[in-house]
Amino acid sequence: MAEEEEANRQAQMEKMEELEAIYGSDCFLYSSAEHCCMTSIQHPDSVTSMDSHTRPSPSLTLLVHLPASYPSHSGPVAELSHCDWLLDNARSRLCYQLERMAGGGGGGAGGGKGEGEREGEKDGRRGGE
Fold first, then answer.
1. How far apart are CA 82 and CA 19, in angstroms?
2. Is residue 71 reached through a cis peptide bond, with omega within 30 degrees of 0 on the bond before it?
3. Phi-psi region of 82 (alpha: psi -120 to 50; beta: other; left: phi over 0)
4. If you write DSSP's letter for every residue of 72-95 in order, what string do you get?
5. Domain 2-43+58-102 listed as CATH 3.10.110.10
6. Which end of the chain is more exposed for a tag (fewer CB within 10 A), N or C?
7. How confident is the model at residue 64 (pLDDT cuts 50, 70, 90)?
């Protein structure tokens, strides 16, 4: 069991190094103590040059937690926050896609304030961030 846990930790570290190489350390933060990573994503069409000083551009935060059993037995768990500006159906679609990328049943998008819900589910916590 200890060998499998060590193999999981090694695979997690390698994955985080790959992601940091792709996204850069200024927009990608990794906490080895909590086994999670976080990035803030700016909406590309959100700000024109005229309103960039008066209105902040919408962004969202993606937090990905890697359970101790990742990758041998479970997928990553993704959570969206700071995304209250997204319409409910867009947030639901985004969360659904995150769940699919995480492997469906094991991991998923959810479990935090302001995150989206699956198709057909109602999230009464919108705006709770």
1. 21
2. yes
3. left
4. TT---EEEEES-TTS-HHHHHHHH
5. yes
6. N
7. confident
